[in-house]
Specification:
The complex is a heterodimer of chains A (458) and B (126). By secondary structure, chain A is mostly helical. Chain A has 16 helices and no strands. Chain A starts with a helix and ends with a helix. With 126 residues, chain B is an alpha+beta fold. In chain B, a hairpin with a 5-residue loop joins strand 2 and strand 3. In chain B, helix 1 packs across helix 4. The chains are: A mainly alpha (458), B alpha+beta (126). The interface between A and B is medium-sized, with 33 and 29 residues.
Chain lengths: 458, 126
C-alpha cells in the first residue's frame, strides 16, 4: 500500500497540472513557451512545498495561489508583448456588449464609406483630370480618419489641428497654378504633388489611428501593421470584386445589355472606396482566416526581392557609364527600394522581438545590404546627372527620396548587423523604424507644398 | 503589481521599483531560471519580500527585450524544458546605474531616519 499511494497521488498532481496548463493557455497573451515557463515555476514551488511537508493537493493549491491572479498575470504579459495584444485586439468578442459595439462600428464605417463614395462620384462628375488626380485622396482618406477619430475618442484639439492641416494642404495644392506645356502634358511638379499627397495624408491618418498618441513607439508599430494588413486585405477584396464584375459583364453581354456606363460611372466610384473601408474594418476586427499571413508572405518575398535587387544592381552596372544610365531606370530603382523598405518594415512589424536571431534575419540583412548597394549606385548616378544637367523638379525629388531611403537603410542595416552579431536587440531595430516614419511625412510635405513654387509650377 | 508579504507590508509601488535592480543584481551572480530567482529573492529578504510568482515572467521578458538579460532554453534534471536568464554587458551597465540611483535614495533616507525622533533602527546609524 505504501508503494501504491504516492504514485496515485503523483498521477493526481499531474492531472491537476495538466488542467492548470490548459487553463493558462486559454489566455491569448500567453504563448505555449510562457506557459512552459510558468509551469516550471509551479513545479518548483510544488516540489519545495512538498519537501516542507505539505501533501500534493495542499502544495498544488498554495503554488497556484502564489502564481497570482491569472487575469492580472496575462494582462501583464499582454502589456509587455504588445504585438500579441494587437493580434488579439478584437478577435472573438469578450462580451455581448462588445459584439454589439463591433456591429455599430461597422454601421458607422459603412455610412462613412457611402459618404466617401458620394465624394468620389461628385469629384469624378465635376472635376477634370487634373483636379481628380489632386483630390482623390481628399475624397476618401479623411472619412477613414473620421472613423478612427470617432472610435478612438480623439481629443478635440488634435482633431481640429488635423482638420486644419489637411484643409490648408487641400487649399494650397488646388490653388497652385500648375503650368501645362504645349503638348498638353501635365507639369512635372503637378505629378510629384499628386503622387506624394496620398503618402502625406496617410501618415496624417496615422495620427488618428494612434488616437493622438502618435509619439508612442508601440502605437506607431500598430499603425505599420495596420497598413500592411490593409494592403493585403484590400488586394484580396479587389481581386474578388474584379472577378465578380467580370462575370457581371459576361452575363449581361450574353443578353445584350450594355452595362459599361453603369459600371464606369456608378459602380467604381462606390465600390473601390467601399472595398477600402471594408478592408480597414476587417483588419480592425481581425475576422481573419489570414491572420498569420504576414510572416509567411515576408518569408516568400524576401528571397525573391533579394534576387530582384541583385538583378537590378547588375542592370545598373551593365548600363554603361553612370551618367548615361537611363532616367526611367533611376526612377524605377527608387520604386524598387521603396518596395524593399515596405517589405522590411512589414516583416519587422510581424516579428516577435524576443525571438533569437535566425537565418531569416541574416537573409534580411542580405536584403538590406543589396538595397544599400543599389542605393549607392543610384545616388552616384543621380548626382552625376544633376551636376551635368542641372536641377529639375523630377531629379531633385528622386534624389531627395534616395537620400531619405539611404539614411533609413543605413540605420536598419547597422542595427540588424548588431542584432545578428548578438550585440544589439531587435527592439532597437524596431524603434529605429518607427522613429524614422515622420521623416517620410516631412519629405512628402516638402514635395507636395514646396516643390511647385520652388520650380515655378513647371 | 506585486504583493508584499511577511511581517512588514511593503507597498506594491516600492516592490515594483525594486524589482528590476533586484533581478539584475541576482543574475549578476550567475545564470538562473525564473523560479530560482524567486527563491533567491525570498532568501535575501528572509521571506519578507514576496512577489506574485507569475509577475516575474513579464518583467524578465521586458528586461530581455531591452537587451539587459539574454535567455536560452535548457532541459532541467527532470527532462522538462526550462528557460535560463543571463545578465548581458548592457544589463551590467544598467545595474551599475541603478545601484548609483538607489545609493542616493538610501543615503537620503538614512539621514531622514536619523533625524527622526525615537530610536531609529540599528542599521540606520551604521
Amino acid at each position: 500500500m505504501s508503494d501504491e499511494r504516492p504514485r496515485d497521488e503523483h498521477v493526481d498532481l499531474e492531472d491537476q497540472i495538466d488542467q492548470w496548463r490548459t487553463w493558462v493557455l486559454r489566455r491569448r497573451a500567453i504563448t505555449p513557451d510562457d506557459a512552459a515557463e510558468l509551469e516550471d515555476n509551479l513545479r518548483g514551488r510544488v516540489a519545495d512545498l512538498r519537501a516542507a511537508g505539505l501533501d500534493d493537493d495542499e502544495a498544488f493549491l498554495v503554488a497556484v495561489r502564489r502564481m497570482g491572479n491569472l487575469d492580472d498575470v496575462s494582462r501583464e504579459f499582454a502589456r509587455e508583448h504588445s504585438e500579441r495584444l494587437w493580434k488579439q485586439l478584437v478577435l472573438v468578442p469578450d462580451s455581448p456588449s462588445e459584439a454589439g459595439r463591433r456591429w455599430r462600428d461597422l454601421g458607422v464605417l459603412i455610412a462613412l464609406a457611402v459618404v466617401a463614395g458620394v465624394a468620389v462620384k461628385l469629384l469624378v462628375t465635376f472635376g477634370d483630370d487634373a483636379s481628380i488626380g489632386l483630390n482623390l485622396a481628399f475624397a476618401v482618406l479623411p472619412f477613414l480618419a473620421a472613423y478612427f477619430a470617432w472610435s478612438r475618442h480623439l481629443s478635440a484639439r488634435t482633431a481640429a489641428a488635423l482638420v486644419g492641416l489637411t484643409a490648408a494642404v487641400a487649399v494650397a495644392v488646388n490653388l497652385y497654378p500648375f503650368v501645362t506645356d504645349g503638348s498638353g502634358d501635365a507639369a512635372m511638379t503637378y505629378v510629384l504633388t499628386a503622387t506624394h499627397l496620398p503618402v502625406l495624408l496617410w501618415l496624417l491618418l496615422g495620427v488618428t489611428y494612434t488616437g493622438g498618441l502618435w509619439r508612442d513607439h508601440a502605437r506607431r508599430m500598430d499603425f505599420v501593421r495596420f497598413t500592411g494588413e490593409l494592403a493585403i486585405y484590400f488586394a484580396l477584396i479587389s481581386l474578388g470584386g474584379g472577378l465578380l464584375v467580370a462575370l457581371l459583364f459576361a452575363t449581361f453581354d450574353v443578353v445584350d445589355i450594355d452595362i459599361e456606363a453603369f459600371v464606369g460611372e456608378w459602380l467604381w466610384p462606390f465600390a473601390v472606396p467601399g472595398a477600402f473601408f471594408v478592408a480597414a474594418w476587417l483588419v480592425e476586427a481581425k475576422k481573419s482566416v489570414v491572420e498569420n499571413i504576414a510572416p509567411v508572405l515576408t518569408r516568400v518575398f524576401t528571397p525573391l526581392t533579394l534576387v530582384l535587387l541583385v538583378a537590378a544592381l547588375v542592370a545598373l552596372l551593365a548600363g554603361g557609364p553612370l551618367d548615361a544610365v537611363d532616367r526611367d531606370l533611376l526612377i524605377l530603382m527608387d520604386a524598387i527600394l521603396l518596395l524593399v523598405l515596405a517589405l522590411l518594415l512589414y516583416s519587422i512589424s510581424a516579428r516577435d522581438p524576443l525571438h533569437p536571431g535566425t537565418w531569416f534575419d541574416r537573409l534580411q540583412l542580405g536584403l538590406v545590404a543589396a538595397a544599400f548597394a543599389v542605393n549607392v549606385v543610384t545616388l552616384t548616378a543621380m548626382v552625376t546627372r544633376i551636376s551635368d544637367a542641372g536641377w529639375t523638379a523630377n531629379k531633385t525629388a528622386a534624389l531627395g527620396l534616395n537620400v531619405v531611403l539611404f539614411v533609413h537603410l543605413t540605420g536598419t542595416g547597422w542595427l540588424l548587423w548588431r542584432f545578428v552579431r548578438a550585440r544589439g536587440t531587435f527592439d532597437a531595430v524596431e524603434r529605429w523604424q518607427t522613429r524614422y516614419l515622420p521623416v517620410y511625412a516631412a519629405w512628402a510635405a516638402i514635395v507636395v507644398l514646396l516643390f511647385p513654387p520652388a520650380f515655378s509650377f513647371a | 503589481m506585486y504583493n508584499g508579504g511577511g511581517r512588514v507590508h511593503i507597498e506594491k509601488d516600492l516592490v515594483a521599483a525594486a524589482a528590476t535592480p533586484l533581478v539584475l543584481g541576482i543574475l549578476a551572480d550567475g545564470d538562473l531560471h525564473g523560479y530560482a530567482i524567486l527563491k533567491r529573492v525570498g532568501e535575501l529578504s528572509d521571506g519578507r519580500l514576496q512577489w506574485t510568482d507569475g509577475m516575474l515572467y513579464p518583467l524578465l521578458h521586458r528586461l530581455e527585450r531591452n537587451g539587459w538579460v539574454s535567455a536560452r532554453w535548457d532541459v532541467s534534471d527532470a527532462g522538462r524544458k526550462r528557460k535560463h536568464y543571463t545578465l548581458t554587458a548592457a544589463g551590467r551597465e544598467v545595474l551599475a546605474q541603478r545601484q548609483a540611483q538607489w545609493d542616493v535614495v538610501a543615503d537620503a533616507l538614512r539621514q531622514v531616519w536619523s533625524s527622526l525622533q525615537g530610536p531609529p533602527p540599528a542599521e540606520a546609524r551604521a
